[in-house]
C-alpha cells in the first residue's frame, strides 16, 4: 500500500499516522542478522524475530509516512520489547505524535510507537525523538 507522506510542519501533538503492516519471513530475518552481524543460532532455532528487527521495520514504516527537513537529528529512542514474535507473524505498527514543541530555531518532535500482533497484544512500545530545524 503506497501511503502519501506528510510534512512534519503539518502535524501536531496527538496526530496519529496510518497503521503499517509488518511481516518478516525467514529470509528477511537472515538478511537482518547478516547486516548487523548478529548471532543467528537462537533466532533460527526458535523461529523468532530479533526484537530490533521489529523496531527497525516500525521506524522504517514511520519514515515512509513523514517528511523531515535536511538537518533533522535523531536524538533518542526508548523501546520496550514485551513479547516474542515468530517468523511470518503479521504485526501492525501504530505511531502517534506525543509531543511537538518549538524551541528557539528548532522543533522538538517525539513520536510514540506501538506494535501489536493479530491478537492485539502489544509486542513493542516506545518513543523516538528528533530535533528539526525550521525550514
Total number of helices:
3
Strand runs, count = 7
Strand proportion: 35-45%
**How much helical structure, as a percent, in the residues?**
10-25%
Task: Tell me the name of the CATH homologous superfamily.
Answer: Hotdog Thioesterase
* Major beta-sheet overview: 5 strands, antiparallel
Low-pLDDT runs of 5+ residues are: none
- The class by helix and strand makeup works out as alpha+beta
Distance linking N and C termini: 29 Å
The average pLDDT value, as a whole number, equals: 90
Strand order of the largest sheet: 2-5-6-7-4
Computed over alpha carbons, the radius of gyration is: 16 Å
CATH level-3 fold name: Thiol Ester Dehydrase, Chain A
Q: How many structural domains does the protein architecture include? A: 1
Q: What's the CATH first level? A: Alpha Beta
Explained architecture:
- It is a single chain.
- The model has no long low-confidence stretch (mean pLDDT 90).
- The chain is 22% helix and 41% strand.
- By secondary structure, it is an alpha+beta fold.
- The chain has helices spanning 26-36, 41-46, 51-63, and strands at residues 6-7, 20-23, 66-67, 73-81, 90-103, 106-117, 122-133.
- It has one domain (14-133): Thiol Ester Dehydrase, Chain A, CATH 3.10.129.10.
- A five-stranded antiparallel β-sheet has the order 2-5-6-7-4, with helices on one face.
- The two termini are 29 Å apart.
Amino acid at each position: 500500500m503506497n501511503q502519501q507522506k506528510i510534512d512534519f510542519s503539518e502535524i501536531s501533538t496527538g496526530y496519529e499516522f496510518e497503521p503499517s503492516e509488518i511481516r518478516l519471513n525467514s529470509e528477511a530475518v537472515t538478511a537482518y542478522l547478516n547486516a548487523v552481524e548478529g548471532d543467528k543460532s537462537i533466532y533460527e532455532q526458535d523461529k523468532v524475530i530479533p526484537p530490533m528487527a521489529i523496531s527497525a521495520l516500525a521506524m522504517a514504516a514511520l519514515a515512509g509516512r513523514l517528511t523531515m527537513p535536511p538537518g533533522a537529528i535523531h536524538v533518542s529512542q526508548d523501546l520496550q520489547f514485551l513479547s516474542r514474535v515468530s517468523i511470518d507473524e503479521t504485526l501492525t505498527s501504530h505511531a502517534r505524535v506525543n509531543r511537538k514543541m518549538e524551541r528557539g530555531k528548532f522543533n522538538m518532535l517525539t513520536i510514540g510507537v506501538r506494535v501489536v500482533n493479530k491478537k492485539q497484544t502489544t509486542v513493542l512500545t516506545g518513543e523516538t525523538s528528533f530535533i528539526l530545524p525550521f525550514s
